[in-house]
Design a protein that fits this description.
Blueprint lengths: L1 H4 L2 E6 L12 E6 L5 H9 L17 E7 L2 E5 L10 H17 L3 E9 L6 H12 L4 E6 L6 H17 L6 E4 L8 H15 L1
Parallel strand pairs: 2-4, 2-5, 5-6, 6-7
Antiparallel strand pairs: 1-3, 3-4
Length: 200
């Protein structure tokens, strides 16, 4: 999608108190520290180094904002759950994450990434709960889909959708995704464009 090809880094913040003012929409990316958020952002924008990737999970410890259009942003949130950092820092991240998701008025949607081999872990469920309370649309990316054959990958996707329906989260959408195999990149772009267009 041409819109995301022009993405540019804007600002990094350690906590939501210094968030930039905006009249337009933004979409946040969240997930465990090894779920591939930065890689997904780079694949979406076609810019290999837009969001920093690392072999050490947990490198993203700030809220990183990327401009994709006039008053439109993508936000890479701190990874959670896996990073080797002090407990106090993890608790601090959790507080900031909750404050951002529940109070950011310009937030139009949340992309929640999870390894397709380990979907819907405890903190994923917490994020879904926060989003539901905030009436925030959520789109799940089941990443690393290339690690499974197509049949098992589709079975996992259907299983996740059934579980969401059982939890009363049927409005949450989900798809398979892989950066190396280029699975689902266009589908993700179309979903984000629909959210941004709906905000216009």
């Amino acid at each position: 999608m041409p819109l995301f090809r022009h993405a540019a880094f804007e600002i990094s913040l350690a906590q939501p108190s210094g968030l930039p003012l905006t009249a337009g929409p933004e979409i946040a990316f969240a997930g465990r520290s090894n779920a591939g958020k930065s890689s997904a952002l780079n694949a979406l924008t076609g810019q290999g180094k837009l969001a920093r990737t690392s072999k050490t999970p947990g490198r993203t410890r700030l809220l990183n904002f990327f401009a994709v259009g006039p008053d439109q942003r993508l936000v890479d949130l701190p990874g959670y759950g896996y990073a080797r950092v002090p407990k106090a820092m993890k608790e601090d991240w959790d507080r900031h994450l909750a404050a951002y998701l529940q109070a950011r008025r310009s937030l139009r949607g949340l992309v929640l990434l999870m390894d397709i081999r380990h979907p819907l872990q405890d903190f994923d469920r917490h994020l879904l709960h926060w989003a539901r309370q905030a009436a925030l649309p959520v789109h799940l990316l089941l990443t690393k889909a290339d690690k499974l054959n197509r049949g098992p990958a589709q079975a996992t996707l259907l299983g996740v959708r059934r579980e969401l329906a059982r939890q009363g989260q049927a409005a949450v959408t989900a798809q398979t995704f892989s950066v190396p195999a280029r699975i689902g990149v266009e589908e993700l772009a179309a979903k984000l464009c629909a959210w941004l267009d709906a905000s216009g």
